[in-house]
Amino acid sequence: MKQITSAQNPFIKSLVQLQEKAKSRKQSGTFLIEGKREISLAIKGGYEMETILFLPEICSETEARKLSSNTELIEINKDVYQKLAYRDTTEGVLAVAKTKSQQLSDLKLSENPLILVAEAPEKPGNIGALLRTADAAHLDAVIIANPKSDLYNPNVVRSSVGCLFTNQIATGTTSEIIAFLKEKKINFYCATLQNSTSYHTQDYTLPTALVVGTEATGLTEEWRTQAMQNIIIPMQGEIDSMNVSVAAAILIFEAKRQRGF
Q1: Minimal CA–CA distance to 87: which of 150, 151, 37, 139?
Q2: 112, 225 in Cβ contact below 8 A?
Q3: Which of 46, 83, 91, 251 is the most buried (most CB within 10 A)?
Q4: pLDDT score of 48 more than 90
Q5: pLDDT tens for residues 92-104?
Q6: Separation of alpha carbons 73 and 226, rounded Å
Q7: DSSP state of 118
Q8: Mean local confidence (pLDDT), 117-128
Q9: pTM, rounded to two decimals
Q10: Which residues pair with 118 in a beta bridge?
Q11: What distance lies between CA 52 and its chain's CA centroid?
Q12: pLDDT at 89
């Protein structure tokens, strides 16, 4: 079995680039996953592993091989591991995985889908939280409109605690996504301050997409003018917006309540 003991090894340097640069991830079609649970969820979600790297002091060869028996294993030392690992308290294992296509046409929807659409979310932490909520509600899909962040950014992978791999995810422009929803006859409701009615008055029991924007600028006019209905969460404090992942969770679980969970 191959062993790497130098952080200056060309392969390790290429993995550092995967961690740090979206361009490297895009060009290679690969990204890094850290942690046993995350790797297991990615494999379950249909992601193909190219290589698994393990630090024997924390993760044994047997444990690493159990994750994916037909994947190349590389034993690394502490210096190499610390060069690659993001988390301080971690499990001694990383994987190089192939990225997936995120085309709208790849989505496999149920007869009565419930979808979350997020327009231009920028903060990896918010994207991760949205994906965790979508997993908890077992949504059909999460669609990112006009993405600002690379979904395989290690901060997204980490903050989603593996839910990047448990959700169907697609990306596209606002225009492409609106056309897709209309073609599939999916009603979409936009969370916005303008021309809105209280979210709990609407019927989400039919094919539905719930659309949220950024906290700073909200949704673009294209969404607001073409929505089935613009919706708002009544707020009684001094501010007029809340964290996007919190707002999405409130809307999603109202839809789940109407559908009998």
Answers
A1: 37
A2: no
A3: 251
A4: yes
A5: 999 999 999 999 9
A6: 51
A7: E
A8: 95
A9: 0.95
A10: 144, 212
A11: 22
A12: 65
